[in-house]
Amino acid sequence: MYNELRDYMIALFANNTRKDGRKLLDYRKPIKVEYDISPKSAEGSARVTIGKTEVIAGVKMEVGKPFPDTPNQGVLIVSAELVPLASPEFESGPPDIQAIELSRVVDRGLRESKAIDLDKLCVKEGEKVWIIFVDIYPINDSGNLFDAASLAAIAALKNAKMPKYDAKEDKIVYGEATNKKLPLNKTPISCTISKIGNYILVDPSYEEERVCDARLTVTSEKGVINAMQKGGPNSLSHEDIMKMVDISLEKAKELEKAL
Amino acid sequence: MKYEKRFSNRKFDELREMDAKVGIIERADGSAMFKIGKTIAIAAVYGPRQLHPAFLRNPQRGILRCNYNMMSFSGSGDRVKPGPSRRSREISMVIENALMPVLDLSDFPNAVIDVFIELIQTDAGTRCAGITAAAMALADSGLTMKDLVSAVSVGKVGDKIVVDLDKEEEDFEGGATDIPIAMTPRTGKITLLQLDGEISKEELDKALKASRDACNKIYGLQKKALKEKYGDKNV
Amino acid sequence: MEKSKLLVEERQIVVPGDILAEGMDYLPEQGTFREDDKIIASNVGMVSIKGRLIKLIALNGKYIPRTGDVVIGRITNVATMNWLVDIGYAYEAGLSLKEATSDYIPRGEDLTQFYDFGENIMTKVITVSRAKMIDLTMKGPGLRKLKGGRIIGITPSKVPRIIGREGSMVNMIKDATNTQIIIGQNGKIWIHSDDPLNELKAEEAIKFVDNNCHKDGLTEEVKKFLEKK
Known about the structure:
The structure holds three protein chains of three kinds. Chain B is built from four helices and nine strands; from the N terminus they run ββββαβαββαββα.
């Protein structure tokens, strides 16, 4: 169905141009991060735009039971809801596989990089720890939700302040934030690279996503790779992957500047 | 109980600070944002498009389908569990009924106009903000409409009739009556009316009168936002 | 009786509910309606006044099929006796065997040899039923398969602007970019150039007109755009 579009794009790539005028290795501009966009209710929040793609993330905190195997560590729960507001392709209903993949990829990036110092989120060992919810909402999907969502999540965490916890009543006093920031040690950055035909390009638009053969999302932190996810119906060679990783580590520096 | 001065220091007929923007979601057929005080609502319109499941189709005209949702971090305290609640489903329905009277969907039999409303932050007046944003989004999408729909909450806080209650007023310990209203400003005809609290007939009449003025102010802002999308500075 | 009053001017941008004129002298056309003695806008659009007739050029909106429209469609389904065609409406239009070709087609013949999945056609709307079931025909001057090329989309109400007076706008774009351009009334546009960069420029120029239709001096702006680079 999209053959003519794909063929045309490949003809453009031969000229190092994409349909929206970018070069193959250009991210869309502007890349904007806005903090504290829901200050009244969220413990932390942020809005990220990469070109026209827009994602909002919010952090809510609760105090609850830790996981049995990590009795003195806080709990991180990342979820993404592909609300139908953001694209004609999203439907109402429980998270579909696309939403689940997005949540889990963002989660892996945060978890494996140990971005949040979960040890500092213990309230009472074995009984009470902080539970950090990061909820991600695309507002407009013009392509590359992975990178926009990851950036929004880390920005919301960066913005987050611990709320006041009344240990006696075992209650959070929402609306009374402390000045204590969420213990965020690292800022892992995700970069998504696509392969269409023989061409490798960064930050796919939604039209490019439709015709792409394979994509690789690499989440890294200061040159160390923490998470990867390959998607798409076709294969990547070892060479492809090393090339994509190189590009992504380079581009991560650019994205980190936006924070 | 007497309510001498509003918590926000506003006059009793004064609305909170508002902002509106149209065309904010590229993938949508129509979209808008409306902010009133701390309540922020965004709306997107998709359609006319195919309606599934097929048994919902009306062969004589298109149907309007609204979905109101609060983002998990938008509530006043605890995290809001994702997914529809009884409250959000009722709000979706009353929003649909608030917008239907201005639409003529006879050109789109069997099809659906989907309206999605998300709340980014809430401080009372959420369904009204949703309707106000949705009306702009519907107009933005190019649909034929008899008029826009403007909505605001009026009510009684303590002993005073007020316009645009915030959450603090809704929770006033001396009692508050919340009356969300939507209307087509040109004619003043009311398309959404709900009430919860305690109020006399005379007070209700006063509140309804106050709502017309308030809705006209919102109407002006909606029109401005729609025209600004096209760079029209003469509004 | 009160004298009629025009409350807006040519090319002014109005929104649903705006009062355009008062009095019975003016007549409401497309995009407007009469309520008592007032003429009111029913869409977001640009005012266009011709004598006593007031209409709006809608600035957005999806394609609403009307009989006689010559449109560009894509074959989405091939059945035993007909094809389904996407012409940009919520539901697909139908192209029957009878209307597809004058050839005799024996029963059970593979219809994809005539029109296959994903092929683009220049076709005409012959019937729009009350439930908006749409029938198409390929019989008529200019109606044919569009081989190669790509389809892009613009707001249907802006098609006249893309064409321009006697084709002036589209011809300017065609010449400057060496690109073939065929425009359907449904806002679908077929473009093709041997040079993909030229084709991209043509597409950008068309999108530019779509987005700036309401601005004054559009032709000049498009000219400048085409001369750039």
